[in-house]
Backbone:
């Protein structure tokens, strides 16, 4: 066990899997380049935020494949490699760029196993950054995981801590289905205890980060920490909360959510993916259809407005759900 | 040391959660063979005989006759021959200890607890006391309590795969999750799995408390909500948001009553002006709910069957009662000790008409698809009772004198009200009369009493001006309506019967010839 950042935990997971399994390869932009291209003696950049820094040095160009800025080629290559027996970990840099590469993901990789009657599979992981709060403006701040989760055949993971990131990424690499691994960019420098040896966290198992009896707060990624902060503040006033981090959106741990709602009867769902048709709405529909009788109050959604993410830091702060908004929603449910 | 076991409350159907020990067929101390009937168990649906799953000796009855037990709870202590009373007592004590109820478990009803020691037979008096205590502790728990069977008790070891809520519940109830099978991904144990395990081991799980209705108020702008001006003003006065009101007014508008109801629900009327509060419709007292008695259910079933299956048609006639009334007066004046009623005479007239038109004196035999015609007029007379009605039968009324009929009717009505009618006194009959004349009902129609072919509904005799030989005279006129089952009686036939009835009633001397 040692203290590692979210970024280091992810690199740790990839490196350990590459050592264990020769079929694991990394594909992406700037994996090797950045600092002078073909100069082996120069440390490679390791992606735009340096997550995979060091992998090229250890595994070489055969297994750490540098690509031009061409998302459709990255995904096409990864999907094909996966179908022919490799376990690629492709990096899309920002998940916002899925638009130029989505055919390979949603119309090819996600369909292989089903349409070829189980004879083909696509064990690939697509890593990418999501999340606002980095002043990266409208095209580099989105969280399109709700779009991925709507595609059958794709698994969607959103880790919120270094520990979860490592365990979930190893589970994702070992999974035989395509996994969209959504890393929240403002968590990269978050530190936490991470075991040194490889371990997995099963996909589809939620984590309760706080336990309480009055309100259930459901959040993903960086918002889990906002929800925890809200829960801690509420606890001082005697309002205790279950904070649920589903960790994977698809598959979704419905049991963990419904069990908590059954006990509290009050739900706040926090999300930054979308103000319409997003992750929060999906969970709200789950609760309304399978847990209606448990509810003591309407489901509260804490969501950004239905606009692109603003560039202005002040506006972006206003745009993002935060602990204060979550706390207010919970208090509203308690009638306080 | 003899091997002792328990006999447990069986589960006869998927829906069975508890059963009543209806009767013990084996005495304590007696041996029984495998398959022998040991006791009777009553469920909400059936009474079943519990057959011994193995041969043994019955040592102690834990659940005396009448005890309600959850499925799987021990009913008796049994074992191979040769167990000493001390051994039995020790076994029961062990069971008792294991069953030590949770603090959350409600105490058994006091009456049952008192009854138990008396009713529990056991080989040794000391054991009997312990058995009674056990019977007490496993007596029917108060609905809603959670009872965890001893088999599941314990501490959950590290590393059991369970959901967060399941872990917390297990800790609260003192359940060892290692004994529970998980149904989730990778064998994860959910709250539901715990509930299933508790029920399977014979315990019970409290129903979740129903969520209280939260008083949720809207704060959105309600200026665009369609509302009547009065409603809008009142809403402003009471601080009610129009979004919280139902719109029952015209053109889909919120009206005054909607605002008042919403204000009441949101508890905003307390500090409202008295004049406003008084206008709120207060819910009346709760309606009284009485389960249907057996008689009501029988009436319901039979009459629904009649209405659904028998194609009813109705014929109405008016009968001039002057001569029948006169005859009644004469008989009552001339015969000492006799007080016949108009009804008695009508029964006699109906009997005479039935003999004259025998095809109305019939029943419909659905099974044989046949019409059964009776030689005698067995007339069922509808008698109103508290909470129901019954139709005792005046048998062979055609062959009885009016005084006999009168005496018989009095006797039958008395028995009916006392509830002592014998089945043969109210089952059968070939024709029914229902008389509501005493209540001033002038005319009504009755539902045929199946499988009979017809029923006569008799109204009150009302004095009316009727033309008699060109003169207007005041005569008591009774309206009688015959309901016929068209499967066995046609219109002309029914009309013919009514014509004969009218003839006999208007000229009662015809009944004598």
Residues:
């Amino acid at each position: 066990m040692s203290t590692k950042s979210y970024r280091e935990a992810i690199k740790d997971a990839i490196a350990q899997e590459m050592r264990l399994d020769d079929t694991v390869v990394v594909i992406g932009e700037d994996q090797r380049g950045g600092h002078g291209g073909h100069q082996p003696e120069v440390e490679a950049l390791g992606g735009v935020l340096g997550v995979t820094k060091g992998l090229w040095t250890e595994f070489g160009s055969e297994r750490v494949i540098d690509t031009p800025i061409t998302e459709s080629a990255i995904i096409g290559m990864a999907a094909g490699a996966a179908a022919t027996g490799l376990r690629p970990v492709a990096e899309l840099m920002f998940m916002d760029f899925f638009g130029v590469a989505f055919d390979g993901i949603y119309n090819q990789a996600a369909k292989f196993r089903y349409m070829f009657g189980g004879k083909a599979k696509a064990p690939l992981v697509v890593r990418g950054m999501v999340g606002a709060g980095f002043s990266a403006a409208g095209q580099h701040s989105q969280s399109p995981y709700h779009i991925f989760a709507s595609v059958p055949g794709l698994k969607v993971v959103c880790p919120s801590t270094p520990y979860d990131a490592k365990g979930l990424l190893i589970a994702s690499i070992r999974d035989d289905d395509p996994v969209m691994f959504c890393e929240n960019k403002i968590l990269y420098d978050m530190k936490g205890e991470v075991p040194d040896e490889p371990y997995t966290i099963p996909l589809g198992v939620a984590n309760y980060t706080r336990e309480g009896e009055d309100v259930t707060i459901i959040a993903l990624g960086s918002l889990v920490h906002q929800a925890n902060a809200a829960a801690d503040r509420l606890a001082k006033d005697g309002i205790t909360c279950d904070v649920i981090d589903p960790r994977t959106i698809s598959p979704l741990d419905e049991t963990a959510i419904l069990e908590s709602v059954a006990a509290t009867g009050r739900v706040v769902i926090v999300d930054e993916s979308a103000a319409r048709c997003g992750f929060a709405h999906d969970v709200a529909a789950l609760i309304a259809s399978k847990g209606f009788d448990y509810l003591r109050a309407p489901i509260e959604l804490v969501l950004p407005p239905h606009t692109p993410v603003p560039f202005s830091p002040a506006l972006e702060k206003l745009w993002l759900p935060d602990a204060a908004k979550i706390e207010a929603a919970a208090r509203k449910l308690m009638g306080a | 040391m003899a091997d002792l076991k328990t006999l447990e409350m069986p589960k006869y159907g998927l829906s069975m959660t508890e059963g009543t020990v209806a009767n013990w067929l084996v005495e304590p101390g007696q041996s029984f063979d495998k398959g022998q009937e040991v006791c009777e168990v009553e469920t909400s649906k059936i009474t079943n005989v519990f057959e011994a799953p193995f041969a043994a000796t019955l040592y102690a009855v834990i659940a005396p006759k009448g005890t309600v037990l959850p499925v799987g709870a021990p009913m008796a202590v049994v074992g191979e021959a040769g167990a000493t009373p001390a051994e039995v007592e020790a076994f029961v004590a062990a069971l008792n200890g294991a069953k030590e109820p949770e603090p959350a478990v409600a105490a058994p009803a006091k009456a049952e607890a008192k009854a138990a020691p008396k009713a529990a037979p056991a080989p040794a008096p000391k054991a009997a006391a312990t058995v009674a205590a056990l019977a007490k502790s496993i007596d029917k728990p108060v609905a809603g309590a959670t009872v965890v069977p001893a088999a599941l008790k314990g501490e959950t070891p590290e590393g059991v795969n369970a959901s967060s809520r399941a872990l917390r519940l297990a800790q609260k109830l003192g359940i060892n999750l290692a004994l529970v099978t998980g149904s989730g991904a990778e064998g994860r144990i959910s709250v539901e799995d715990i509930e299933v395990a508790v029920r399977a081991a014979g315990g019970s799980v409290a129903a979740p408390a129903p969520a209280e209705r939260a008083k949720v108020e809207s704060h959105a702008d309600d200026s665009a909500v369609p509302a009547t001006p009065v409603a809008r003003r009142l809403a402003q006065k009471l601080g009610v948001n129009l979004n919280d009101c139902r719109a029952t007014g015209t053109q889909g508008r919120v009206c005054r009553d909607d605002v008042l109801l919403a204000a009441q629900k949101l508890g905003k009327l307390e500090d409202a002006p008295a004049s406003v509060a008084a206008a709120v419709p207060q819910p009346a007292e709760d309606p009284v709910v009485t389960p249907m008695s057996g008689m009501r259910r029988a009436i319901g079933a039979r009459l629904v069957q009649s209405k659904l299956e028998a194609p009813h048609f109705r014929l109405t006639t008016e009968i001039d009662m002057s001569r029948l009334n006169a005859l009644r007066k004469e008989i009552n004046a001339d015969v000492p000790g006799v007080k016949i009623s108009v009804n008695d005479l009508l029964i006699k007239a109906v009997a005479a008409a039935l003999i004259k038109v025998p095809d109305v004196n019939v029943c419909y035999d659905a099974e044989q698809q046949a019409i059964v015609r009776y030689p005698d007029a067995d007339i069922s007379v509808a008698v109103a009772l508290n909470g129901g009605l019954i139709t005792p039968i005046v048998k062979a009324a055609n062959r009885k004198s009016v005084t006999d009929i009168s005496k018989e009717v009095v006797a039958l009505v008395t028995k009916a009200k006392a509830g002592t009618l014998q089945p043969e006194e109210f089952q059968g009959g070939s024709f029914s009369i229902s008389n509501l004349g005493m209540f001033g009902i002038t005319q009504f129609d009755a539902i045929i009493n199946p499988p009979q072919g017809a029923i006569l509904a008799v109204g009150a005799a009302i004095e009316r001006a009727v033309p008699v030989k060109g003169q207007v005279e005041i005569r008591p006129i009774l309206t009688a309506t015959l309901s016929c089952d068209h499967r066995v009686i046609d219109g002309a036939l029914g009309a013919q019967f009514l014509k004969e009835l009218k003839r006999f009633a208007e000229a009662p001397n015809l009944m004598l010839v």
Summary: The two ends of chain A are 42 Å apart (CA to CA).
